[in-house]
Amino acid sequence: MTDTTSLTRPHVSILYCTRCNWLLRAGWMAQELLSTFGEDLGSVTLIPASGGRFEITVDSELVWERKRDGGFPGPKALKQRVRDVIAPERDLGHLDRETPAAGEN
């Protein structure tokens, strides 16, 4: 039986270059998003591609593009960008707090 509410929840797509061997990176990012957002997401889909492409979209909104954004997102940046699209009011706890610079307390 299909969960009809999953159709109305946001869908994340991670397009990754297979020739660059970025499957593990894409899978890890999918795991991070599912661990953080769980049932708030309808799906996380991995899409094989080529040409050095690595793009993350939420529904049709591009939230990260490797060439445009200068590399790969860290987990904090990725989760914040996805949150900003699916639930801007949501607090991500320690991910939203500034960490003090070295030597500050």
TrEMBL record:
Signal peptide: none annotated. The keyword Ribosomal protein does not apply. Keywords: Redox-active center. Pfam families: Rdx. NCBIfam families: CXXU_selWTH (TIGR02174). The keyword Ribosomal protein does not apply. InterPro entries: Selenoprotein_Rdx-typ, Thioredoxin-like_sf. This is SelT/SelW/SelH family protein. The lineage of its organism: Bacteria, Pseudomonadati, Pseudomonadota, Alphaproteobacteria, Acetobacterales.
